[in-house]
Amino acid sequence: MARRGRRHRRRGVSFKRRALIWATSVLGVALIAFLVMYFAMKNAVNKVAADIIWDNIYIETVDVSGMNAKKAKKALEEFVAEYQAKKIKLVAEESEAEVSLEELGFQMQDVDKLVKEAVSYGKKGSIYARYQQIKSLKDKVVKPVTIDASFEVDTETTTKVISEKFFRLEGAAINATIKRENGQFVITDGKSGVKVDLEKSAQIINEHFGNDWKYKGVETINLVTTVDEPNITKEQLQQVKDVLGTFSTTFKANNNRGKNVANATSRINGTILMPGEVMSASDSMGSRNAANGYLEAGSYLNGETVESYGGGVCQVSTTLYNAVILAELEIVERSSHSMIVDYVKPSMDAAISEGVLDLKIKNNTDAPIYIEGITKGGKLTFTVYGKESRPSNRKVSYVSETLSTTDPGKKFVSTKDPIGTYKKAVSAHMGIKAKLWKVVTENGVEVSREEFNKSSYKASPATYHVGIGSDNAEAVAIVKNAIATKNEAKIKAAIAEAQALISAETSGTPKPEEAPQQ
After folding, report:
1. Which of 35, 84, 428, 467 could make an S-S bridge to 462, C-beta 3.0–4.6 Å?
2. Domain count, the chain
3. β-bridge mates for residue 273, sequence order
4. Model confidence over 454-504: pLDDT tens digits?
5. Lowest-confidence segment of 32-46, 102-116, 415-429 by average pLDDT
6. 61 and 198 in one domain?
7. 3-class secondary structure, 349
8. Are 299 and 334 a contacting pair, CB within 8 Å?
9. Is 78 among the domain residues?
10. Do residue 373 and residue 303 come from a single domain?
11. Which tens digits make up the pLDDT trace of 91-143?
């Protein structure tokens, strides 16, 4: 019995051992099979380099198979360039325009991101997942992998194109106008119309090139239009009835300077300033050049008088300035001249220099302002019209106060004129520091006096030309030496001495020191 038990135990042990061996063999075979399959899949998914796109991959309709990122990006840029040459039709009411996509700033969105997605396809995730992606690319039944792109247009560029193509729609708004004829205002009514809503139209165009857009030939996009109301209405202009301020200066009308004054005045005449608007006198006059009818005349430059186109227009800005401050409009910008002028008192001037100095005026009233400028018979007048809202018993005036003066002196310059020539070439300008007071009275009684501006003017000496032209070297030296002293009395005495010397030489009379002794 004992031996039979032992045999049964040996048989059991043998069976378990065989089962274990069998199981181990199966697992070993499975592991080997798995490893073979794993390395086969690994080799398959790594067959293409990390920076190369697998075959059968498209971005939009561009086949980027086998390309690296740089080549794929270039291919997309060429694709976009082809699209940019294509055209669409923009329509606004009865107006239409055909434009290229390039004109609208057409581009593919996120090109680098799209290329990166194409390059990374089949190269992320587990070996098995990547293998399934690669296997699908090689399956002829499966369609190519297509990465969809989105397109956009540049909003700023599109807005500009719309503005240029539809700048004048049929029936666009027309502002009411006002002009002064024979002492009366003549007003023409405005008219409403239609205009393109640039912002909304640009948005619609951008939305048109959304994710699902494909070019199907010349397409039509309807722009957004709105009712365009006049900025200036007849009702607004009918408020312009009252004289708010007027001022006049005189000038010589028949020379170049006078013609420049008349030209600049005519360009400002009829200016309308709506509430809150700012006017630039320099811009209103236009560039001071021959093309705009300006002539060369005297003007100030760095404390000297020089000839320049538009010389004299500062008198126009100065006269306007005084009319405007009487109307009590806001002065945004004003500068005094470098040297004193003779057509207004100190601190009452307003210099302009194209691109450097300007007179800028803001309409700080609730009604439109009309500026009238007239030149007639050597008289320049500016009148500011609007709606009077100041009390009738209130008056405003401006008082100039000279704070200090500087004697300009005299300057003597030698010329090739004959000895004996002595003439004033440039007048002196007194150096002055001044202040302008704004004085308000009510019923003739002063109620306030406020400092309105301060001005400083350079002293500029009178320039005299002294002739030194002569063949007599001694006479020339006498006058030159006197000029060097900058003393007028010595210069005049030297001129007399030199003239006597030249006269004696001409007549043959001996020099005083060579006369025979008695």
Report:
1. 428
2. 2
3. 369
4. 999 999 899 999 999 999 999 999 999 999 999 999 999 999 999 999 888
5. 32-46
6. yes
7. coil
8. no
9. yes
10. yes
11. 988 888 899 989 999 888 889 998 988 888 777 756 656 666 676 666 655 67
Q: Specify whether 249 is located in the same domain as 359.
A: yes
Structure tokens at 230: 């006049």
Task: Using only the alpha carbons of the chain, give its radius of gyration.
Answer: 46
Same domain as 363, residue 293: yes
- Residue by residue, what is the 3-state secondary structure of 86-148? CEEEEEECCEEEEEECHHHCCEECCHHHHHHHHHHCCCCCCHHHHHHHHHHHHCCCCCCEEEC
DSSP, collapsed to helix, strand or coil, labels residue 354 as: coil
If one counts every other C-beta atom within 10 angstroms of the C-beta of residue 38, the result is 13
Has residue 506 got a pLDDT over 70? yes
Residue written as tokens 């200066």?
A: 249
Q: Which domain holds residue 306?
A: 239-383
* Rounded distance between C-alpha atoms, residue 421 and residue 414, angstroms: 10
Half-sphere exposure (CA, 13 Å, Cβ side) for 445? 2
| Mean pLDDT confidence for 236-245 | 96
Report the b/e string of 305-331 with b at 16+ CB within 10 A.
beebbbbbbbbbbbbbbbbbbbbbbeb
Task: Summarize pLDDT for 259-268 with one digit per residue, the tens.
Answer: 999 999 999 9
Residue 121 lies in a domain: yes
The highest-confidence range among 48-62, 142-156, 493-507, by mean pLDDT, is 493-507
In this structure, the answer to whether residues 164 and 252 fall within a common structural domain is no
Statement to judge: residues 193 and 148 lie in one domain: yes
Is the distance from CB of 297 to CB of 282 less than 8 angstroms? Answer: no
The reported pLDDT for the residue numbered 49 is: 75
Residues 62 and 157 in one domain: yes
What's the one-letter identity of residue 257?
R
Question: Is 123 domain-assigned?
Answer: yes
27 domain residue, yes or no:
no
Q: What's the full length of the chain, in residues?
A: 518
